[in-house]
Amino acid sequence: METITIKTIGPWMPRGEKILITGNCPLLGEWTPEKALPMTLSQGILWTITLDKKRLPAGFEFKFIRQNNDGSYTWEQCFNRTNPYAVTETTFPDQHPRYAGTAIPVFSLRSRNSAGIGDFGDIKLMVDWAAATGQALLQLLPVNDTTSTKTWTDSYPYGGITIMALHPIYLNLKDLGTVRGEAARKAFDEEAAELNALPQLDYERVFDLKMRYAHAIFAQNGTRTRGSKAYQAFFEANRGWLLPYAAFSVLRDRFGTADFSTWKRLKKYSALGVARLYGEAKDEMDFYIFLQYHLDKQLREAHEYARSRGIALKGDIPIGITPHSVEAWAEPEYFNMGEQAGAPPDAFAADGQNWGFPTYNWDRMAQDGFAWWKRRFRKMAEYFDAYRIDHVLGFFRIWEIPVPYKSGLMGHFSPALPFTPDELRWRGFPFDVNRHARPYADDDPREVLFLEDPVHPDHWHPRISAQYTRSYADLPQWEKDAYNRLYDDFFYTRNTEFWREQAMHKLPELIGATPMLTCAEDLGMIPACVPQVLDDLHILSLEVQRMPKDPRQALGNPAEYPYMSVCTTGSHDTSTLRGWWGENHDGEDCPVDTCRWIVAEHLYSPSMLAVLPLQDWFSIEPSLRVTDVAGERINIPANPKHYWRWRMHVTLEDMIANVDFNEKVATLVADSGRKESRKA
Fold it and tell me: Is residue 401 part of a domain?
């Protein structure tokens, strides 16, 4: 059968609403909405349908119509369409709706029933507040398990030991079950209340409490739960990742480390070895499967509740995996374990960043159609409606730092097109390996102007920020000029088309694997090809006012942001709005009216999504402004050992009851044209 696929770009719509196609032939319903054909959502806002070409008359005409949740239909406002091959936007009234949202990590939530940390149950209360104020979206940080050392260093949410399993620390204990024995219940309740009263997260004590509680519930109810149909269905649907994850967790516990290279058993993964371990240590492994069953249930319930209130949940997909993770252990062929991912120097860190994650073996991933990534995205889609691709630039090229270097300055872009010695000389630079690619002073490895490509010997990358080295300072001026020309060409021109090709080879397949709305974190040293690729793939960019994309601007102008973007006053990696003001005004606190004006400026922007950190919403209400402004910051990227522990200083119940605050937020959202009209 010869087919034709018709595509259109529609607005981001409430769940349940659909785009249909109708036209002037029987196959398309002859302009009757009830006979129109439903299209399939394939990339967040891209709708497609594949039709039998023989059943379509030559020169047929068609239109797209929107089926609303109340049963009505909305027709396009355009002439009848005649070109089925053109991929264009639909033309419904209010084609470009705009929404408001809030960004807050799950661990930062605080309810009266929390146990020292926000949990999946608390999401429902946060949803209630968002719905009451006319918002449409809640943005979370990664929620995957990070349990590596069982210390506070595991608070780093981007250091997951798994891309699939959820973090046990987010269990809602009351939903998990009730511990038998009045004395035991009282002890747990008192400890949970004590931890919940702390101003910040005490990661180690909270984790210990939740694991002790979970073990008690498993001992009571584990056998009955494991025999249930719901548990068995969950196990069968997820066993491909559950068994390796459970085995990894048990071996980590036994040997006291997630560094599998030091284990006395199964340091090299084998499916047979995992099966044997399951036969020997079924209860140990089943405990971790039991936790995942309940975590999956709780997050699904929170997601369904959010949908019922008209609130979308937006997740976060970290760019990397840790070297001591289930995936590095079970699927090492997908990674370059001798390389570390990071970022070149930027506003966050003058020395660059070294995240310590292995880089991806994209050639291997391409061999099976990026199946690893598709599994990851599809799992994410079980809980979220939209997602943030952390460091989307990594799909164009990643900043790669060879082991054992620690400094981000010793990195290079991979893949890239490094120079040959002859090319350097043709371009006017007298390249000499000993002078320009060996330590120039004090045996400091950073005192070089070029770094050798690890895959292609005698091919050379200009070292990032080399102009600050003594090696550069001692060059004659004409050599400096020649080096600067090479440097600028390499980082801003030479690789542009090559990097575009890399992204277009990967991203279309990955984002097409789910219907989630795709949002990019595209900050940093941005190749010139990135905006066009994001636009072509209908991926929302990220706009942060203090980090403008235009280097000629000191501050971005929200009024000029593109529609296909997420605008925000800051992120988990920046100071808060009040903190930012103090940094630039000699420690002065930002006045309430100024905060309100900046918030409004973002809400009035053309961006599809205006997603503000909860701390910045607090800044517009005097009764919710804390004295310790710095204490509201979530992360300091320049500090690789930062403790991620901020929690909101009021309970969700009290925030929901704060009429003055909620009216201010709701008014700003409504006046800016972002009021959500879905069920509230």
Answer: no
Specify the number of domains making up the chain. 1
Residue 51 in any domain: the answer is: yes
Full strand arrangement of the beta sheet holding 412-414: 353-360, 335-343, 398-402, 412-414
Count CA atoms within 13 Å of residue 243 on its CB side: 17
| Calculated CA dihedral for residues 638, 640, 643, 646, nearest 10 degrees | 40
For the chain, the helix, strand and coil percentages under 3-state DSSP, each to the nearest 5: 40, 15, 45
Reply yes or no on whether the pLDDT at 349 is more than 80: no
Burial class of residue 545 (count of CB atoms within 10 Å of its CB; 0-12, 13-18, 19+): buried
What would the mean pLDDT of 38-63 be, rounded to a whole number? 91
Dihedral sign of CA atoms 544, 547, 551, 555 in order: positive
Residue 350 corresponds to which tokens in the numbers above?
């003058």
Per-residue pLDDT for 465 more than 60?
A: yes
Domain contains 21: yes
Q: Give 528's contacts (C-beta < 8 A, 6+ positions apart).
A: 492, 493, 496
**Cβ-contact 587, 581 below 8 angstroms:** no
Residue 212 structure tokens: 């002790």
pLDDT band at 95 (very low <50, low <70, confident <90, very high): confident
Alpha carbon 522 to its chain centroid, in Å, reads 11
Question: For residues 619 and 603, what is the distance between their CA atoms, to the nearest angstrom?
Answer: 15
Residues 6+ away with beta carbon under 8 Å from 195: 115, 116, 117, 202, 205, 206, 209
DSSP 475-542: S-HHHHHHHHHHHHHIIIIITHHHHHHHHHHHHHHHHTTS-PEEEE---SS--TTHHHHHHHTTPBEE
Structural domain span for residue 49: 3-95
Task: Report whether the peptide linkage leading into residue 415 is cis, meaning its omega lies within 30 degrees of zero.
Answer: yes
CB within 8 Å of 219: residues ≥ 6 apart: none
Contact 104, 140 (CB under 8 A): yes
SS3 356: strand
Q: Looking at residue 78, which CATH number applies to its domain?
A: 2.60.40.10
Residue 309 belongs to a domain:
no
The answer to whether residues 4 and 56 touch, using CB atoms and an 8 Å cutoff, is yes
Segment 557-591, tens digit of pLDDT: 999 999 999 999 999 999 999 999 999 999 999 99
Spatial distance between the Cα atoms of 484 and 633, rounded to a whole number of angstroms: 38
